[in-house]
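Reply to dn_fold:

You asked what the input looked like. This is it:
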Amino acid sequence: MDITSLKYFVKICQNNSFTKTAKELFITQQALSRRISKLEKEIGAPLFNRNSRGVDLTELGRYMLPRAEALVSACDDLIADIKSKIEREKARIRIGFAPGTLQILGVKAIIEFEQKHSDINIDIAEFSDVDCESNVLNGSLDLALTVKPNDISSFDYYHLIREKLVAIINKNNSLAQRTSVKFEDLRNERFILLTDTFRIQPVILEHFSRADIVPNVYFKSSHDLKVAYDFVVLNKGVFVFVDKLTHIEEYSNICAIPIDEPTAFWDAGFIVKKDARPNKAVKKFMEYFLNKCCSNLS
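and this is what came back:
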């Protein structure tokens, strides 16, 4: 006698039907009947009387039902209690991702890490670069994957990703024929930029300054890249963004031109609060992806 057979027995009693129970359990009616027949053989007497209306319990079946229900309930409680204990004992990591970083790191890679480290629970959420920094500092996050902070004095920073910048340009713009551009080439353009909550902005503005350009900003986007692309489609400006995060395949009249500036790039990595002494789970997570990225580069 096993707990699964007792569960099937109780379920049949609840439904008063082999057919309905088999459907609910996603097994064939023949398989269910064989299971109950085996149980009846082990007990040495029938549990059901089959008839045209369904099934009725025998006297032994009525005697057995409350005892079987108690065993099934106790088993379910035991399993739930064990699972709860395992969950409570799992290490938990709270991770913030700046926009685009999770896309590059890969959701699949996060799932693979969880499968390899079943003793670790991961809580993830997306924040702006600025909010990633503040949440790491106030302890709401154990670590964050974000653009390298302007001031890293409060953080330990672990470089992970470096991507080139591109100028997203309407194809009617003469610059669209170029294989690459420099910031100097954009001097007479209007711009669609991101807000200052994105750490890529100081990098872009610094390069405008080096080129002695005061950008003529048409629009600043806080999160919706589609709006930025739509303005480029309407030829309202040039959008400076990150190469790997640019997805303009559905737009036929805009293109992405690489920006040829060795110092103009999107640099992202893990940040943890300086001197925070990350726990073993946090270290495992960072080491896993730092090693993964290094192997991809080699």
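The mean pLDDT is 89.
Hope that clears it up.
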